[in-house]
Design brief:
Distance between the termini: 23 Å
Number of strands: 8
Number of helices: 8
Enzyme class: transferase
Radius of gyration: 22 Å
Structural class: alpha+beta
Shape: elongated
Pfam family, one: Thy1
Organism: Chlorobium phaeovibrioides
CATH topology of the largest domain: Gyrase A, domain 2
GO biological process, one term: methylation
Strand order of the largest sheet: 1-4-8-5
CATH architecture of the largest domain: 2-Layer Sandwich
Largest sheet: 4 strands, antiparallel
Strand content: 15-25%
Number of domains: 2
Order of helices and strands: EEEHHEHEEEHHEHHH
GO molecular function: thymidylate synthase (FAD) activity
Helix content: 40-55%
């Protein structure tokens, strides 16, 4: 799993001689009817908007991140319909690698949960099984390509653990909702690790908003 920041909304105006940040832009737009629109002090304003659920102002700035994960996890991410996505296409480009997972035991009381308490011999078996599947499926996939079989057909030989890359762009409002949902313990660990990585980016780029949300 890899996550990195790709882009932020870049305001084209300065306030009091300072370049406006993406976070500052949200406050600037929120003050459209205020005589104090040019103020650079917006900590209380954004906290007020969050406390009173004035979410529309958080649509004034966007953030784009790059995510490297597996085909098992990317469909979970793509369910967030308020975002725009671009994903690596196995129709046009050759798959390069297959990710490995650390196995966990199924929680018998909660099908959305898994427990990290498998015996070492079971973990070893799963690791070996993953390696066999990865080697054989990739070998067959590459052989299919050598035989002239189209990538869009050959990809049927690849497992869900095949690595993919996607770009995810959304408003700060969308990111707030995504992070609230996907950092929750009910989210699959591999997806939660991605959300935690994005959370770290969010807190750095939007410190006032993150503080008001209780995230920092």
């Amino acid at each position: 799993m890899q996550v990195r920041l790709i882009a932020l909304t870049a305001p084209q105006i300065d306030i009091e001689g300072q370049s406006l940040t993406a976070e500052g832009l949200m406050a600037y737009c929120a003050r459209v009817s205020s005589p104090h629109q040019e103020s650079t002090d917006y900590e209380k304003l954004l906290a007020y908007c969050i406390a009173h659920k004035h979410w529309s102002i958080f649509e004034m700035a966007d953030m784009t991140v790059e995510i490297v994960t597996s085909r098992a996890i990317s469909p979970q991410i793509l369910r967030h319909k308020s975002f725009q996505f671009q994903e690596f296409s196995q129709r046009y480009a050759q798959a390069q690698s297959i990710e490995r997972y650390t196995p966990r035991r199924q929680d018998s009381k909660n099908r959305q949960n898994s427990l990290d308490d498998l015996p070492p011999e079971t973990v070893a078996w799963f690791d070996e099984a993953q390696e066999r599947v990865a080697m054989e499926s990739m070998a067959l996939y590459e052989e299919a390509l050598e035989k002239g079989i189209a990538k869009e057909c050959a990809r049927a030989l690849l497992p869900l653990a095949t690595q993919t890359k996607l770009y995810m762009k959304g408003s700060i409002r969308s990111w707030i909702h995504y992070l609230e949902v996907r950092t929750d313990p009910s989210t699959q660990k591999e997806h939660r690790d991605i959300a935690d990585g994005i959370m770290a980016i969010f807190v750095k780029q939007f410190p006032v908003t993150a503080s008001a949300l209780g995230w920092s």
